[in-house]
Design a protein that fits this description.
- By secondary structure, the protein is an alpha/beta fold.
- The protein has 26 helices and 23 strands.
- The strands form 4 sheets. Strands 9-8-10-7-11-16-6-17 form an 8-stranded parallel β-sheet, sandwiched between helices.
- Strand 2 and strand 3 form a beta hairpin.
- Bound molecules: iron/sulfur cluster (SF4).
- The site of iron/sulfur cluster has 13 residues, from helix 11.
């Protein structure tokens, strides 16, 4: 075990303190350390390798420096801001590391005592602040022995749990009842993937029981593959409920507590004191968090079912924050259910801990057709003049020139560019410098504001995110400035948009033992492989549907053009077709249009030309209650046409079996609107992966179409109609992207 991990595990106490602390970059850390080491005398030893065995535990690490003549052992920390402003628990952790190195050094060199020096070096000025303690070998040994004892007790408990867990999983039967059609095929492919330690793209249709079909084989493979954890990750919140339902069945079939399940939710959902800062001076649930954490953790681990309700109950019982309890429990869970960002975001905690602690992880990614878009967002950033101006008003006067400089440079760049949109090959040096200076200045200011939270801090996070995106900039991303005239002033937004997240995701896939990405809509596989950076040996499975192909009557309206310039002219034909279908086969239908504007036009036209057809519409500002009301109108044997946006809230994850929904109309091909941005997007993707794949438009467009169409048949006995309303659905490249089992009428 590394010294750092041992101390993080055993040396935390007192308040939770998530106060903002600007940290030095890795490079600044190396430079700071090198600067300090260069100032020391010739006898100074750098990077002193140390290790020691305590019972079954081997602890090792490298102390930053040791000076034998003065018998001084140093731990060098490069920081931003004042060392006095550092949170107490962070400094405590630094001392714990240094004390551990001290104990190992004393043992290795038979020293009676050692001078411990915690050296804080400023990332900007490289000024040193040194804190010292003279410690005897005996007291250091005693402290280390106590820490190792704590860890070994935990590790023994975990090994016992692990053995019981693995034994239970080896005996885990597949859920009662026979396999559904296609489910066995999926389960076998997932099991093979786990055993071979690979990645798999699994396109599996609705109704086969995908969640169980993926989860059970991964659980069964867990003992043999020595998996530490399974991450069941979803792109949208709805998938988490299904996963927990499946895990309930695992719980029913295993001894109590055998498999620990943790479901993570966003901080906004779990926070008991919204608007407060997360530290002991502001939030009562942060006070003494680490002192009360062990008892809460013990209870949660004993209960084993750690869903958000259980986390809240246990946390409040012990007077600590439920959200951060959930984060702490990550180390203790066998199956973690949560959002995909835990594994794929630059700061994803599941990935970070797995790297730090050497976990073997099996990933299951549900609704994986959304992963490209979700991960693009994780590696993108933007900032507008309006944001900078608003933050400048709130910033201290001393810092305002830094804001003004960035405003000036972004405004000038926007004014000078040809047109309201321009892509740039690189960020101009002066703008990059201005951004860096703003990040540094604001960071140093915030370091002196221990209670900082709110708009200025949020703005700081935005600029840090942008700066990191600038640092990562490459062919995988697009840098652009959008300009908009607002009266006499100009608005401009600088964006770094990731277009191909493969560069960042490939190492993530390589780091886990195995990963299964599943969805009803993944084809073509090349799109997912290229954009997600899946390893070359990744597998692919396309599970056949459970429906008889003739149950879905697919019609192509090939006399209709829904291209943007033809929409007005074709509106009457579109709604007449819908009314004819409704009159011939009355029932509930969903009609998908590519934008709210187009949706309104079509719904108005239907109301005008066919007022007898009942209709209801999605609108832009629907809250949860409005969404439920929209879906509630789909009663069995009901009649009407519901208008919704393609790619929107009702185009996926909506389950309306039987006569609740008997058909869908899909107007357009779901292509993004023509724009200079879209043009750049396409050019960049063509440059990366070759032209003609449709990666920028046709493939994502058809994913939306197939997802929306997937609302019609939900159960094996369902029958329904699907109208594809555009003549381009006859084009070979479009037909090639439709599911092979769809049988379109000639
Ligand atoms: S309850 Fe809310 S404010 Fe308090 S520590 Fe938790 S997340 Fe932070």
């Amino acid at each position: 075990m590394s010294v750092r991990s041992l101390c993080e595990f055993t040396a935390k106490h007192g308040d939770l303190d998530r106060r903002f602390t600007p940290s030095a970059t890795a490079l600044e850390g190396q430079l700071g350390q090198a600067a300090v080491q260069a100032r020391r005398g010739p006898a100074y030893e750098c990077e002193v390798a140390l290790q020691g065995r305590f019972g079954p535990l081997l602890v090792r690490g490298r102390a930053d420096g040791y000076d034998p003549p003065s018998n001084r052992l140093e731990e060098i920390k490069t920081i931003r801001g004042q060392p006095e402003a550092m949170a107490e628990n962070r400094r405590h952790l630094h001392w714990a590391q240094l004390q551990t190195y001290g104990a190992l050094l004393c043992a290795a060199r038979e020293l009676q005592e050692v001078q411990l020096a915690l050296v804080y070096v400023d990332a900007g000025t490289q000024h040193e602040t040194v804190l010292q303690q003279l410690c005897s070998a005996a007291e250091l040994q005693a402290t280390l022995a106590r820490r190792c004892g704590l860890f070994v007790d935990w590790a023994r408990q975990e090994l016992t749990h692990r053995a019981a867990r693995d034994q239970a999983l080896e005996l885990l039967p597949f859920p009662p009842g026979p396999f559904r059609p296609g489910q066995r095929e999926l389960a076998e492919a997932v099991y093979r993937t786990a055993v071979n330690g690979r990645c798999l793209l699994a396109q599996a249709p609705t109704g086969i029981g995908k969640t169980l079909g993926a989860l059970f084989p991964m659980l069964r493979a867990m003992p043999g593959q020595r998996l530490d954890k399974i991450g069941y990750l979803t792109c949208k919140g709805t998938g988490r409920i299904t996963a927990l339902e499946a895990l309930h069945r695992v719980r029913d079939q295993t001894p109590a507590g055998a498999v620990r399940v943790l479901a993570l939710v966003a901080k906004e959902q779990a926070c008991e004191h919204p608007g407060k800062a997360c530290h002991g001076d502001a939030c009562p649930l942060a006070q003494g968090f680490y002192d009360r954490l062990p008892a809460a953790r013990e209870q949660a681990v004993a209960e084993a079912w750690m869903d958000p309700a259980a986390q809240r109950r246990i946390a409040l019982q012990h007077g600590i924050c439920p959200y951060y309890l959930g984060q702490e429990l990550l180390r203790w869970a066998d199956v973690v259910v949560g959002d995909v960002h835990h594994a794929f975001d630059p700061n994803g905690q599941l990935h970070g801990l797995a790297q730090a602690l050497g976990w073997r992880i099996g990933l299951l990614v549900d609704e994986a057709h959304n992963l490209v878009e979700r991960t693009r967002q994780m590696y993108s950033a933007a900032i507008s003049l309006a944001q900078i101006r608003a933050a400048r008003v709130l910033a201290p006067a001393l810092l305002r020139p830094l804001f003004s400089r960035l405003i000036q440079l972004l405004g000038e760049a926007a004014a000078e560019q040809d047109g309201d949109y321009a892509a740039h090959d690189e960020i101009p040096d002066d703008m990059a410098d201005a951004l860096q200076e703003l990040v540094s200045g604001l960071g140093e200011h915030l370091q002196t504001q221990p209670m900082a939270h709110g708009p200025v801090l949020n703005f700081y996070f935005d600029v840090v995110r942008l700066q990191k995106a600038v640092d990562r900039f490459g062919t995988h991303s697009l840098l652009d400035i959008e300009r908009e005239a607002l009266g006499s002033s100009v608005e401009a937004t600088l964006s770094l948009r990731n277009i191909a997240p493969a560069t960042f995701l490939r190492p993530r896939f390589e780091a886990c033992h195995c990963a299964v990405l599943f969805s009803a809509t993944l084809a073509p596989q090349g799109y997912q492989r290229d954009l997600l950076g899946l390893p070359d040996n990744s597998g692919w499975i396309d599970v056949p549907p459970i429906f008889a192909p003739e149950n879905l009557r697919v019609q192509i309206a090939d006399r209709v053009s829904t291209r943007y310039p033809h929409r007005e002219a074709s509106l009457a034909a579109v709604v007449d077709l819908m009314a004819r279908q409704f009159s011939a086969h009355p029932g509930n239908y969903l009609a998908f249009f590519s934008s709210f504007q187009y949706l309104q036009q079509a719904a108005d036209a239907l109301a005008l030309r066919h007022p007898q057809v009942p209709q209801w519409r999605q609108d832009r500002a629907m809250d949860d209650a409005a969404r439920v009301a929209f879906l509630t109108r789909f009663v069995p044997q009901g009649q009407g046409i519901a208008f919704a946006v393609l790619g929107g809230a009702f185009a996926e994850g909506v389950d309306l079996p039987g006569s609740r929904l008997i058909g869908a109309f899909i107007a357009t091909l779901g292509l993004p609107p023509v724009s200079p941005l879209q043009d750049q997007f396409r050019q960049r993707l063509d440059r990366l992966f070759g032209a003609g794949h449709g990666y920028a438009d046709l493939v994502p467009g058809m994913h939306k179409v197939v997802q929306a169409a997937g609302r019609v048949l939900r159960a094996p006995d369902d029958r329904g109609w699907l109208w594809l309303m555009d003549q381009r659905y006859r084009q070979p490249e479009v037909l090639a992207l439709l599911p092979a089992w769809w049988r379109h009428q000639p």
